[in-house]
Specification:
The complex is a heterodimer of chains A (262) and B (315).
Chain A lengths: L5 E10 L2 E11 L4 E5 L6 H8 L7 E6 L2 E2 L5 H7 L1 E3 L12 H8 L8 H6 L4 H18 L15 H13 L5 E5 L7 H18 L2 E6 L2 H7 L2 E6 L2 E6 L1 H6 L1 H8 L1 H8 L1
Parallel strand pairs in A: 3-8, 3-9, 6-7, 7-8
Antiparallel strand pairs in A: 1-2, 1-4, 4-5, 9-10
Helix pairs in contact in A: 3-5, 3-6, 5-6, 10-11
Chain B lengths: L2 H20 L2 H26 L7 H19 L3 H20 L7 H21 L1 H4 L5 E2 L3 E3 L2 E3 L2 H23 L2 H11 L1 H6 L4 H27 L1 E2 L6 H14 L4 H17 L7 H15 L3 H6 L7 H4 L3
Antiparallel strand pairs in B: 1-4, 2-3
The chains are: A alpha/beta (262), B mainly alpha (315).
C-alpha cells in the first residue's frame, strides 16, 4: 500500500454548540478518485473548507504529500498543489471566461512587477503563453467558444466547467471538487465524468469529490467515504458502500432500510 | 508599437508642447491642478475601483506627500524633486501598513477606519507645530531644478504633466497585466482568488500602498503649485472630495480619474456666480452618479467595458 497523498486525521470542527465534524479520518491514495458522500448537512463542505484552509479545525490534522496543512492559509495550500472548486461557484463574474482561467495561471505568469509596469521585454510573449494555456484548458472542459463571455453571464453548467478549468490552471496535483454535479443535467454529468477520468489518466491527478448524488460518484470513484451528521459511517469500494445498511438508512430513512433488508 | 499607439503618443507629445503657446499662465496653472488632482484620484481608481477596498484616507496621503516634501526641503535642504518621491515612498509604506487592517475590517467599517486615519493625520499636522507650522500652516519652498526655480503654473507644467503622464501609463500597464487581473479578481471574490494561490491580504495592502504613493506624489506636486500648506486642506471633507472625483469620473478606469478631475476643477470656473453653492453642486453630482451611473462618466463614454484600457479594462 502506497503512502496516501492526502491524509485527514481525527478532524473535528464545532460551530458554537454544533458539531460539524467529529473525528474524521480519511486517506486519499495518489491517483485515486475518492468520493465523500452524505446527505445535506453531513459536513462534506466543511471538510473541504478545512482541507483548503478556510476553516480551522478544532482538533486533528491534515497532511498533504507529507506536509502538515493545519496552520497554512488558503493561498499557501493552493501553492502546495491543491486546487478546488466551490459548491455555489465563486467565479470572477465581471471578467471573461478566459480571464478567469488566466487568474488560475497567475502564479506561473513568468514576469515580474517591472515588466508589468513597462510592458517591457518578454511581456507580450508571457501574456500570449498564459492566454494559450488558458485557452487549452477551456478547450479541455469544452467551453472554448465562450472564452470571451463574461463569466457571470454563462449558464450554470458552463460556470461549473469554467471553475474546473480555472482550478486546473493552478497546475495542481490534487483537485477538490465541491458538488461538481449539482444542478447539472444527465448529459452534462456524463461529460463531466469523462473529463475527470481523462484528467486522472492523462495528468495523473488525484481527485477528491464530494456530492450527495450517489449515481454520479459511484460510477467513477475508486473509493467512497460516507458522512452523516459529521461522522464517518462507512468507507470502501462503491459496491460495498451501496450495500451498506447504515448508508441506506442515512439516505432513505429507517423504514426504507428495513424494507430493503427484509 | 502599433500604429494606433504611435499616433496616440505623437498627438500627446505634440499637444504637450503646443499647450504652453496656446494657453495663458493661469490656464496652465489649471492644467497642472487637473493633473495632480487626477493623480490623486488615480490612487482611488487603484485601491477602490480595482481592488475594491474603500479608502477615505486619500487626503491624509496627499498631506503626507505635501508636508513631507516641504519639511524635507526646509529642514534638511532636500530639493523637492527628491523629496516628493521620498515622501511618496514613505506614504506607500504607511499605506501598506494601513492595508493590514483589511484583514479585520471591510466595507463600511473599512471606510470608517480609513476616515479615522485621515482625522488622525490631520490632527498630527495641526499639533506638531514645530515642524508643520501648526494650524497656521507652512509655506512651501519653490521647486528648484538645475539651479532654476519653477514657480508659476507655466513653469511647473513641465514637471507636473510629464510626471502625471508617466504614472498614468505605468498604472495602465499594471492593470493590463497578471497583477492587474489579480487585483480585480480580489475585488470580485477574495475566497476564490485565495484558492488560486493569490495572497489576498498582501494584494490589498499593495493596493493601499500604490494609492498612497499616487496620493502623496500628487500632494507633493500640489504643494509648490499652491505654495502654501494649510492643514485644513487635508481633512475628511477632502478625502470625500477626492472620492467624489473618482466616482463621478468613473472608478473603474484611469480615464475616469482624468475626466473627474477635469469636471471638478473646471465646474467652479463656469459657476462663478454660484460659488457658495459649489459644495451642493458637487454633492448632487456625487449622489446622481452613485444612483444613476455608478460607472461614472467614463462608463458612459466608453460603453463597452474593457474596450480599451483607458476605457475600463480595470473591471
Amino acid at each position: 500500500m502506497t503512502a496516501p497523498l492526502l491524509s485527514i486525521q481525527d478532524i473535528g470542527v464545532r460551530f458554537g454548540g454544533i458539531v460539524a465534524l467529529d473525528g474524521i479520518n480519511i486517506d486519499v491514495e495518489p491517483g485515486a478518485i475518492h468520493a465523500i458522500i452524505g446527505p445535506n448537512g453531513a459536513g462534506k463542505s466543511t471538510l473541504i473548507n478545512v482541507v483548503t484552509g478556510i476553516y480551522t479545525a478544532g482538533q486533528g490534522s491534515v497532511t498533504f504529500a507529507g506536509q502538515t496543512l493545519n496552520r497554512l492559509k488558503p493561498h499557501d495550500i493552493c501553492r502546495l498543489g491543491i486546487a478546488r472548486t466551490f459548491q455555489n461557484t465563486e467565479l470572477f463574474g465581471e471578467m471573461t471566461a478566459l480571464e478567469n482561467v488566466m487568474i488560475g495561471a497567475h502564479r506561473s505568469g513568468g514576469y515580474g512587477p517591472f515588466v508589468a509596469a513597462t510592458h517591457g521585454f518578454g511581456f507580450a510573449a508571457a501574456e500570449s503563453r498564459m492566454r494559450a494555456e488558458a485557452m487549452d484548458l477551456l478547450e479541455l472542459v469544452g467551453i472554448a467558444e465562450d472564452a470571451a463571455m463574461l463569466a457571470g453571464a454563462l449558464p450554470f453548467g458552463k460556470q461549473r466547467r469554467l471553475e474546473l478549468a480555472r482550478a486546473l490552471a493552478t497546475r495542481p496535483r490534487m483537485l477538490l471538487l465541491d458538488e461538481p454535479a449539482a444542478g447539472l443535467r444527465a448529459a452534462e454529468i456524463e461529460a463531466l465524468n469523462n473529463i475527470l477520468l481523462d484528467l486522472r489518466a492523462r495528468r495523473g491527478l488525484t481527485i477528491l469529490l464530494i456530492d450527495h448524488v450517489m449515481a454520479l460518484v459511484l460510477k467513477i470513484s475508486d473509493r467512497v467515504t460516507v458522512l452523516n451528521f459529521g461522522r464517518k459511517i462507512a468507507e470502501g469500494l462503491p459496491a460495498e458502500v451501496r450495500a451498506n445498511p447504515d448508508v441506506i438508512k442515512a439516505y432513505l430513512g429507517e423504514r426504507a432500510a428495513n424494507a430493503i433488508a427484509s | 508599437m502599433t500604429g494606433k499607439t504611435l499616433l496616440f503618443a505623437v498627438t500627446g507629445i505634440g499637444l504637450f508642447f503646443a499647450l504652453p503657446h496656446m494657453l495663458a499662465d493661469f490656464q496652465l496653472f489649471q492644467v497642472c491642478l487637473i493633473a495632480v488632482t487626477a493623480l490623486i484620484a488615480l490612487g482611488l481608481t487603484v485601491v477602490t475601483g480595482l481592488a475594491g477596498q474603500v479608502s477615505l484616507a486619500q487626503a491624509a496621503f496627499v498631506g503626507i506627500g505635501g508636508y513631507g516634501a516641504a519639511i524635507l526641503a526646509t529642514r534638511w535642504g532636500v530639493p523637492l524633486w527628491a523629496g516628493i518621491p521620498l515622501s511618496g515612498i514613505v506614504a506607500a509604506m504607511a499605506g501598506f501598513v494601513l492595508g493590514q487592517v483589511t484583514l479585520r475590517v471591510s466595507g463600511h467599517y473599512l471606510a470608517l477606519a480609513t476616515m479615522a486615519v485621515t482625522a488622525i493625520v490631520q490632527l498630527a499636522f495641526i499639533h506638531m507645530d514645530d515642524i508643520t507650522g501648526g494650524a497656521a500652516g507652512m509655506p512651501v519652498p519653490s521647486f528648484e531644478i538645475g539651479g532654476r526655480a519653477l514657480t508659476s503654473g507655466g513653469e511647473l507644467y513641465y514637471v507636473i504633466v510629464p510626471t502625471t503622464a508617466v504614472l498614468f501609463l505605468i498604472v495602465g500597464n499594471i492593470i493590463r497585466s497578471r497583477f492587474g487581473r489579480a487585483f480585480a479578481a480580489t475585488r470580485q471574490s477574495e475566497i476564490a482568488v485565495a484558492a488560486m494561490g493569490v495572497d489576498v491580504l498582501r494584494y490589498k495592502a499593495l493596493a493601499f500602498a500604490g494609492s498612497a504613493f499616487l496620493g502623496a506624489v500628487g500632494g507633493g506636486l500640489l504643494a509648490p503649485l499652491a505654495s502654501y500648506l494649510d492643514p485644513m486642506q487635508f481633512g475628511i471633507p477632502q478625502s470625500i472630495y477626492y472620492m467624489a472625483i473618482a466616482v463621478v469620473g468613473g472608478l473603474r478606469s484611469p480615464a475616469g480619474a482624468i475626466i473627474g478631475a477635469v469636471v471638478f476643477i473646471l465646474i467652479p470656473e463656469f459657476l462663478q456666480a454660484f460659488q457658495s453653492y459649489l459644495g451642493l453642486v458637487f454633492a448632487l453630482l456625487l449622489l446622481g452618479f452613485i444612483v444613476l451611473w455608478p460607472n461614472g462618466l467614463s462608463g458612459l463614454i466608453f460603453r463597452r467595458p474593457g474596450a480599451r484600457w483607458w476605457g475600463g479594462a480595470a473591471r
